[in-house]
Amino acid sequence: MFLKNVWYAAWWMDELTTRELHPRTIADQPIIFWRDDQGVPHAVLDRCPHRFAPLSMGRRFENGVQCGYHGLAFDGAGGCILNPHGPIVPALQVRAFPLVERHNIVWIWMGDADQAEPDQIPDLGFADRAPSTAYSKGFLPTAAGHLLIVDNILDLTHADYLHASNLGGGAMTRAKPTIEVRPDSTLFVEWLVNGDVIPPFFLSELPYPDKPVDIWNSVLWHPNGAMKLRFGATTTGRPREEGIDTLAAHIATPETANSTHYFYFNTRSFRLGDAEYNSQYAQAMRYAFSVEDKPMLEGQQRRLGDADLLDCKPVLLPTDSASIRARRVYAKLLKAESGEAGPTEHEPLAAAG
Amino acid sequence: MFLKNVWYAAWWMDELTTRELHPRTIADQPIIFWRDDQGVPHAVLDRCPHRFAPLSMGRRFENGVQCGYHGLAFDGAGGCILNPHGPIVPALQVRAFPLVERHNIVWIWMGDADQAEPDQIPDLGFADRAPSTAYSKGFLPTAAGHLLIVDNILDLTHADYLHASNLGGGAMTRAKPTIEVRPDSTLFVEWLVNGDVIPPFFLSELPYPDKPVDIWNSVLWHPNGAMKLRFGATTTGRPREEGIDTLAAHIATPETANSTHYFYFNTRSFRLGDAEYNSQYAQAMRYAFSVEDKPMLEGQQRRLGDADLLDCKPVLLPTDSASIRARRVYAKLLKAESGEAGPTEHEPLAAAG
Amino acid sequence: MFLKNVWYAAWWMDELTTRELHPRTIADQPIIFWRDDQGVPHAVLDRCPHRFAPLSMGRRFENGVQCGYHGLAFDGAGGCILNPHGPIVPALQVRAFPLVERHNIVWIWMGDADQAEPDQIPDLGFADRAPSTAYSKGFLPTAAGHLLIVDNILDLTHADYLHASNLGGGAMTRAKPTIEVRPDSTLFVEWLVNGDVIPPFFLSELPYPDKPVDIWNSVLWHPNGAMKLRFGATTTGRPREEGIDTLAAHIATPETANSTHYFYFNTRSFRLGDAEYNSQYAQAMRYAFSVEDKPMLEGQQRRLGDADLLDCKPVLLPTDSASIRARRVYAKLLKAESGEAGPTEHEPLAAAG
Predict the structure, then answer these.
(1) What is the ipTM of this complex?
(2) pLDDT tens-digit profile of A33-75?
(3) Comparing C-alpha atoms, which of C120, C84, C89, C79 is closest to residue C102?
(4) How far is C306 from chain A (nearest CA, A)?
(5) Alpha-carbon distance B230 to B236, whole Å?
(6) Interface contact C52-A296, CB threshold 8 A
(7) Which CATH superfamily is domain A8-110 in?
């Protein structure tokens, strides 16, 4: 069960080329995406209402798409624009989905179209402001539920173990995060730690590699699966401006209950024009996310099967607080939206802290 | 759920060689086929009654088949002809299925053997009369239910879109078919159109390629999945004999609910002795059916999952009339045979015509 | 449904190396095996109690194993030995399974640890006494339920058909076995036959290949799936010592309901120091078990699907007596252990004998 009245990241903008049809399942719905001749993107259910052929097996037609089986064509609003077999009756329509292009992403609204308000797209404007030599992105089709990916990011202590050789070091485990659930149903978690060690990957970027650092690390989670991450460090006691600062986004768009379209992009405040370093940076992140995170998330899902994590009564630790609170927000929104009960609430084990 | 008291096309006659065992699932039943030493074909359930080993993992034995596991052997009537471990008791038998060889096909009867009447095999005698240089055949294992294949053939307007470059042209869409359900539970649909264009593949076969043509196109459907197709065209106003004429069969034998053994063969009235042209003809048909039809049918099935098309409330068009009426006949026969209710009846949208 | 209070063969001892983690599913439970620094093997559930990550995706830590996701570590008793995120509370534990190393096999106890008594491991001491040049072993991951493998061994008449060219000959079919269910819930079946023919593979090992032989063949079955096989033959009327004698074990450890870890090993009384012959011997057995038995067992399982053989009402023969009686013992033990009803009892067809 997924939230519907949210904007989901569906494609990188530059992936949606003009002449091709782009099928992708979002939140269990098969959807076909295309750009019209003016470059405007459209999305409708990838299933002809006539005989349920996938429209993505057809072709672009005028500004819409034509079914390859019997020739019915539909525009981006889902209306029939060609019925070679008779008049166009009202039943000949296919569900259309609102789209917005922003921050290099095509966002899709899976719920009530009347409520589709572009302002609800999370602000990831830092992506737009980053020069191309300080920006990189990636996409990981992941065989794990979207909430497992959210759990992963909301507990960054995992970096100390899963990414020990590149993004870890122990500082996250030693930090005590502060967590804030905000009125707009986002959640902000921040780890601040002074006089600790910097993760190996960033060691070379500080002026005094042998001195301790002060670290700021935070995640702003949105219920649509978009998470904005900030990580920075400076030599202990020195101003933040003398250190390094990075902004990234990780976005978990549900494909099905147990599979996720995992988008991420990275930006930084240093070596802004260094294309070679940008390439190393992209490669290091890709390694961490695809070789370390993804297999672990998929392993977790295999152990869970079709069960929800919390229904399996995991032993919760204090470091799970942010993810548990985000899951509660998600369950509450889901309940409000669907009128159905979400998963039961679970408290971290008090004694385990 | 499939009809049982019908003859299903199971194999091409020339595929059933004498020494080998030939396993194939028909209507959910695993069956083993073989020829005895006199060349007579036999079929029994591919499951030893002793310990359920597949008999097809055994070997030919006398005029029957011997289980490879513990040596029990059965003849073509399903009777035990060897029990190395004791006397042959009545329980030691395996279900046998009546077979008939006709029209280059081995037909199998899946229902009550007492009702197996060879006269019920659809008359496809044109296959026998065609010279080898005007005959070609093909087989497509198709991951789609047999009724989707019937739907496809009973609405030949699809040729104008799915086969636009070879078998289309628009004439079928412009034609208005006549449909007749006959007392023998067959259905005949005919598209006649005058002064129209001929499909691209046949263009070179007419004396005046730039003149309009009169077209006759028809399908005779039988509840066992066999469909006889006739397509012909002649220069408008001229006798049929001056044009071209073709006869073909498409036969959809259910393997499981969502997979089908799709047999077809082609014959024609022109260039009867031209082996080179026959090869081009076979290749063109193979392309249309395997590269164009089969993927579309399988895409349709993926969208339907395990649901029946009509239960999904498709928007029906006038061109669906023949297939809907054939489905009704099928449902009625199924109900009569099984005593269970078939799928609900659905009317094409009157307003959509 | 499997017996739990038995010792299951889990690994060859020499497969469990010291530094690696060894995951394997036994009786539907994912389990991780490892050796500690003293070489002692351990086994715990392969699922971190925190977030259900597979522990096998982590690493060895002190004498235990550390989860690769958030760094929790557990020892071989399942107790938490490291929680980087807070105190070690009692809930932080993972189920441990008793292990015993014996007869070159690591045995695991899946039931109540208090009842884990090493004396209950079947005596396969002949494996320990065999010189390396008269010992060979093999492992077959088999997509068939463990009871099908037991059935196979308890009815050795199958050798006359399935292994006709190497281990058959017809003597087993002609023999009448004696069957004994013993007070310790084992079953002993013995085929004795005099003046018969020796299986082809052993022909060259007898002094008078053209003379008839007396054969002794037996299986001792244990409810944990371990079966001890003895096969020997001597020239008719001569003492056993002048003939050949072999001992082997076949052990069927359930992985899931329809898949089995199939272990076997072979020893013999002749050509004890002949490494070259030992290699031929190993190869002949591997051929028979992997090319002949395994595909047949998997074919049987395909025909059964998820159904139990006896529920499918097979026609039982006198040769099925041993396997049917073993299945009854198994069902009785299962019922006693779980308080649930086992499969219905079935009698071999009296008339078929």
Answers:
(1) 0.93
(2) 999 999 999 999 999 999 999 999 999 999 999 999 999 999 9
(3) C120
(4) 19
(5) 18
(6) no
(7) Rieske [2Fe-2S] iron-sulphur domain (2.102.10.10)
